[in-house]
Amino acid sequence: MKKIFYYLLFFGLVIGLTTGCTDQKEKWNTLDKKENDIKEETKGKCKIEECLNSIEITNTIEEINNIIGFEGEKKDENSNKYYWNFSDKTKIEVSIGSSGNTITATIDRNEIANKKVDFSKYDEIKALLDSGTSLTYDEFVEKIGGVQGTLVSKSSGFKRYTWANSKGGYLSASFSERTGKCTIITGRF
Questions:
Q1: DSSP code for 36
Q2: Which of 3, 36, 83, 164 has its CB 3.0 to 4.6 Å from that of 93, i.e. a possible disulfide?
Q3: Residues contacting 150, CB < 8 A, separation 6+
């Protein structure tokens, strides 16, 4: 009788512990998934890429505040730089100049990563740039897999775009507003 009691007690404990641990493990997995699925909250009336596309280099700080939806902060008293923090990872910075503003966005490359982006023709792109032949934006897009770049900076003299692939690599290219040709490329892939 004691043996049966001990066996029942033992199996009851094993079942109870197994079921209890499994339920707890599932709860932790569910919590981890929820935390990983949470996207960082951003502020503003538009996404950072949309705001950057809407801002003109001739806009005043007040006009930019209206486009973005909140007031920018002056970097320091001695500079003509303002910034708008959308989140911990994204911001727009504007440098006021006599020939117009330079507008630059800091973006999260993971948010724009695209598995279709192909950097295998980098050497060909670099050779064209070094030879002075260069590429237009559309030709550049064709060389890296047909994926449009994300505008990250613009001024009266240039526009800069960034591409990111799903492997953590990126490439940024600046295009002259005067000639439409690529002038500078940087990246890591």
A1: H
A2: 83
A3: 49, 107, 112, 161, 162, 163
Contact 42, 48 (CB under 8 A): yes
63, two tokens: 């006009």
- Tallying the residues shown for the chain, one arrives at 189
CA–CA dist 158, 180 (Å, integer) = 9
Q: Which of 171, 182, 181, 183 is nearest to 121 (CA)?
A: 171
Query: Do 85 and 92 touch, CB atoms closer than 8 A?
Result: no
In one-letter notation, the amino acid at residue 29 is: N
Q: Could you tell me which residues are beta bridge partners of residue 176?
A: 158
Q: What DSSP assignment string belongs to 126-142? A: HHHHHHT---BHHHHHH
- Asked if residue 19 has pLDDT above 60, the reply is no
CA distance 76 to 47: 26
CA distance 91 to 72: 10
Distance between CA atoms of 98 and 136, rounded to whole angstroms?
Answer: 28
Q: What is the CA radius of gyration of the chain?
A: 26
Q: Is 158 helix (H, G, I), strand (E, B) or coil?
A: strand
**Cα 92 from Cα 114, distance rounded (Å):** 22
Question: What is the pLDDT of the chain when averaged over all its residues?
Answer: 84
pTM value is 0.76
- Predicted pLDDT at 44: 85
Q: How confident is the model at residue 156 (pLDDT cuts 50, 70, 90)?
A: very high
